[in-house]
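Quick one:
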Amino acid sequence: MTFEVRGRTALITGAYSGLGRHFAVTLAAAGVRVALCGRRVELGETVAEEIRTAGGDALVVGMDVTQTEAIAAAFDTAHAALGPISIVINNAGVAMTRAALDLSEDDWQSVIDVNLNGAWRVAQAAARHMRAHDHGGSIVNIASILGVRVASHVAAYATAKAGLIHLTRALALEWARYGIRVNALAPGYIATDLNRAFFDTDAGQKLIARVPQRRLGQLADLDGPLLLLASDASAFMTGSVIDVDGGHLVSSL
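Output:
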């Protein structure tokens, strides 16, 4: 068993920034043909050009995970250009920081519809594609440690990620017979350009102090778990959730 994924095709949602962009670049560097999916196609072209300049193979595909027909069309487009898709990174997500008492119905629905319903739509489309081409594959859902333990002011996000973890297990059970593995990554707090300013504040430093490793995760800390789940090295893993959080989930309450 190796972490070899060269020559395969992956579809990544939310691939134009943040974790999704890093996942796309990481897989492309490992020799995977990548379909970069998201709504802001102009940003996707920037990522694709970066990958191509480094010698990789990337395609930008417009996709809104709230639209079932758009998802199906994206799979068809990616397949026609890059070949059968055997890796899907279900990463698209949105966050909203607001007290639960102040959440409107629309606020709640918008987070759930992208983070949970959207992940379900993409996973179903992926499984239908993989079964139709009779080659199996790996679906990696990007969850969060907030799907296991909660924090204040992120009720909708935490609920969606908890649902995604259970959805991962439910789909793994049903789709194992087709050679389709469904696993999840649950990152803790990872340093990105978007959160760097917060973690420089006193509140941010106090949060870091609660992580047993006393540091934020780096994007590169996700590479090993990602390649494990995308490759045949995890051939006997399905329904698993890998926490990548510096021990945050096992810290004392």
